[in-house]
Specification:
about 70 residues; about 0% strand; 2 helices; mainly alpha
Amino acid sequence: MIPKKYEFVTFAFFMSLFMSFLMSFVITFINVGLVDNFVVLWLQAFWRAFIVAFPAVMTVVPLVRKLVKKLVKE
């Protein structure tokens, strides 16, 4: 098991992994359709998206938590 102190990094990793996986699929499908090399194009888009998404999630999640805390009543 992963130690509690790495909870945020683990969350950010999986959140960015799943979102990159899903969004790269959708955008690749919209752009090229189901062509013969769709899976190759999708996986190329996925790893590029993940490289951007992981640090983005690490940066954005704390800011979003603060914003939500200010907007939502206790």
